[in-house]
Model the fold of this input.
Amino acid sequence: MSAPHLALAVDIGGTFTDVVVLDQRTGRFHAHKELTTPDNPARGVVTGIARLFAREALACADVGRIVHATTLFTNALIERRGARTGLITTAGFRDTLEIGHERKYELYDLHLPLPEPLVRRSLREEASERIGPDGGIEQPLDAGSLRAAAARLVDKGVESLAVVFLHAYANPAHEQAAGRILAEAHPGLPVSLSSEVAPQIREYDRTSTTVANAYIKPLADAYLGRLSTDLRELGLRAPLFMMLSNGGLTHLEEAQRVPVQLLESGPAAGALAAAVFGARSGLRDLLAFDMGGTTAKLCVVQGGEPLVAHRFEAGRERRFTRGSGLPLAISTVELIEIGAGGGSIARLDALGLLKVGPRSAGSEPGPACYARGGTAPTVTDGNLLLGLLDAEGFAGGTMRLDAGLAERAVGEVATEGGLATAEAASGIHAVVNETMAAAARVHVAEHGRDARDFALLVTGGGGPLHGCEVARRLGIRRVVCPPAAGVASALGLLLAPARVDRVATLARTLDQLPPEALEAAFQRLEEEAGAVVAATLGPDVPREVRRGADMRFAGQGYEIVAALPPGPYGAASLAPLRDAFLAAYDAIFTRRPPVQGIEFVNIRVSVSAKPPGSSLEPGLAAAPTPVGQRGLRIEGKLVPVPVHARAGLVAGARLQGPALVEDGMSTLVLPPGAVASVEANGNLVVTLPGPRQAADTPLMEHAP
Amino acid sequence: MEHTPRSFDAVELELLWRRLISLVDEAAAALVRTSFSTLVRESYDFSCVVTDAEGQSLVQATESIPSFIGTLPETVKHFLRFFPAEALRPGDVLITNDLWLGTGHLPDITVAKPIFRHGRLVAFSASTAHAPDIGGKIRSPEPREVFEEGLQIPPMKLLRAGEPDETLVAIIRKNVRTPEQTMGDLWAQVVALDLMEERLHVLMEQAGLHDLSDLAREVQARCENAMRAAIAALPDGTYHSALQTDGLLDKPVTLRMALTIAGDRIEVDYSGTDPQVDRAINCALCYTYAMTMYGVKVCTTPTLPNNEGAWRPISVKAPEGCIVNPVFPASGGSRMLIGHYLPMLVFGCLGQVVPERVMAACGSPMWGMNQSGVNAAGKPYANMFFFNGGMGGNVHGDGISCLSWPSNVSSTPVEISEHIAPLRIHHKRLRPDSGGPGRHRGGLGQEILIESRSDTPIAVSFLAERTIFPAFGIEGGQAGAPGMLRINGEKVDPKRQYVLQRGETVLLATPGGGGHGDPGLRGPGALAADLASGHVTDPAPYGR
Done:
């Protein structure tokens, strides 16, 4: 028997559970989609794996590692299906969770709903203790008050407990003592400590995060325990790793300890896959753009890595409104979600403007042209009328689209707006593109960058359809359309490094910090993170250690994340540290403020290691099979354009726009003037005409 | 040059408008990222706007607070009176913090940049932001004249054709406690103006626009028509409302409003309102205007984008010398102590015709505690912490506890407060029973106990209202609990300044919101839940 050479990935989404197996010797992969089984998600996983392995005649014994991502925990939070959770805080602060930021996310709405705290007031208790901002103990922990508080909560049926003491990020001693006392008094009761879950200054955000962790912890424990047993019974003996929200991997115990870090694991895998596909074309600065039926997602990839944010919002009351959800201080791949998809509905608003989304017809009843009873005009209806979609071959030929119904639906909004139906169709296309471009522009600006410096990588059913137009609006010249977009997320799981991030709050200025103290703080974090990586991939795997810090000019209230030089730090390190901050600052801002002092707010460590054999088979080649032509509406005129089958394009092939490239799940639209080339790695890379030309030659849209 | 007005269809206009919004939002993102003031970053106490060549606003950043939405475009128009088009050059940046031309108090600094295209003035990019410090007496209601409140900058050029006025910069630096941060924020604002200018040029180039007049006319007309239609749907008539504020404790202030709906116009008249006072709670007309507009918009067109057109159908007048239109040299540093009541007066009037669109009174104006002193290193410091009361109940449900309204200023985290100031906060908790009883009860206020740990004295002053007149209920609902301010357990006058020694304490209790509807009609389930959670401990007002 050969050494285990297969790697297995499982990605559970709302509808499908994707299973991908990669042969690490050949770089070849096989994929299978299984319907998700919400009542017992492990069942769908096991069935899916069994089916795929049977189909491809693979042996469980050949699997060397299993990587898993899931949206189960996010959904549990959104649907409020977590455990009955209690909270114990420093005396005087049990209402922190309910008082929140005291800010509204909408100025003019008197009825705005705020998310209910995950722990209601009657399940929030207090214990006597006090630690100062410098970490000094000002009042010792009163164990009696803690025991009494916990006993009251357990009497009320609490199944999981969060403990959050003030300034615990500066000194965790009291929380750790509380952890020991509670374990003794209530063995088996899951306890989440804020100093372990989110050791960062700002008590509301830390409380919200710790409580969310406690809320999903029993669920995560049960699910992950069940899954590993089931996999074992299937004959899979390989270790199971979990994808974290920040795109890293970790082992099962760490995942069970801090499950709040798993919330965004599914989207993180997708972003990682985008970064990998982009890098294969030598493009390391990307906007990864994934457009589906209801929403579009956008992630910035910089230097080959998805940007990681250290704040996240879960369970928003209004999906696309920042500030309407529960704040979580976790590190996640930073994605924005835009209310723009194939099902987004077009309408005329009170001002007589054509608006598209965020309301969506979804897949039921779906766009009018699906002929499932939907009558509202959608993006897909517009696209069909523009000739962008094949009415006969939609969704891999599984569905016929009805152009007559699309015409009727779009015609109605056209009449209302005083437009011809064709104008309304191109208007819908243009407005949804501008909606996505506008969101991208502001998001990129929030990172101090300019969208023009990126390439656009498109996935999802709508990404290839809209990508080139969105790119043009952003001033982007290069668009990448990767292969195998349908299972890209699961594939991303297999290519991800094992990565563990750790953070600690310092809140000191550079001149108040002895270099030895700084070095010691970094080393503590590196040891912790390194131990988890070693437990994940073995002690001998080469590790990459990166140091960073959230820094600012003293007095600023907003930190930037600066990459710092490697340690160890000594007296001579002060100048390089200062320079590293200034370089990061200058990269974002045009003017340096007239301030001398530089402050470390948080220090961050990221330890990562690449799993073995994480490359893909290079080239996909097949004989060319031209499939015909279709009438495309360009600047109001119907123009016949060639249609190519994606599978029929060989490496090195070049296409000139206007043209369409179809694969089973999506259509790539090449506008006039665009040139696409098929690379040996399977990517289709589009180069758009320069900005001047682009302005003079509107593409699918009429001006502006 | 002969000019045929260009028209825009439903698609073109949507595309251009969205581009405009995205460019002011980009500038806002840049300003948040570069600013020093916690007021800008955490509280979004700023705004960015693009106006046409006449200073009439086209678009304003999504994240803006109600006051600046109303004041900023007006300030740009004032700049034009001082510096007409022919006095402006590319690269100029104008500046002022004038109390009457700006926002009603000196810490808000407004800058504007004229934008030229092919040698012609076509637009302004402009921004207002709350500076970390502007000098003068620390922020409190005590100053009797504007001269005590800090540095006054009349409308002038901060940059001339790109060159900073070093004299002005030196004067600003010399007059504020935090020269680095105050100047740092000003340059951050200039960065935002530059960004708007650059993006606007790209947009005009791509859309083939030579100037903004046609586009401005169109977006303003759309908003104006929508506002007129919303007003026309309301019954004509003159509606009155009045309320009393704590004012100067021994001397409450009475505010009066007559709101007339005449066809598609609204006229608001503050005649009968008390005269200005010799304390810094005077509310300059610019701020009065902004807060009045906010109240009207909430009740008429809450989702309408903000631009000049939306305001045209509404006029506001107030007798000169009254507290909502004070004259020079009135002080106004704490003008929100009057101004935050004004939307409530609008609700009092419009509630008579659209009761479903208003709410009971809120535990606002916002509360705050300002401290200043000299830190252990001998450096002067000043901090302001904000705290909010409860919202009023409305026809849809209970008021939200501890929420900023009508402003939108978040509270400073306790851990941050203790880091930057020599204070200990012993508790910050909800005030049970402070929400006004009602079918829908008012939101709860909060109670905060703060102790000085400083070896040197700390001067403290407050923003604190509704300690005498609580937030009233409507439609049969009852009032919320009034606010409370105590030093070392003793009730004190919130409008004065105090000095705290080590170990001395301040207790702030923010007011609860008023209730909506008869408390006897509150659902038994809702009352039981309140009793179980402890939001309510006494069921008596509910008749049970």
In short: Residues 695 and 703 of chain A are 9 Å apart (CA to CA). The two ends of chain A are 64 Å apart (CA to CA). The first strand of chain A starts at residue 6 and ends at 12.
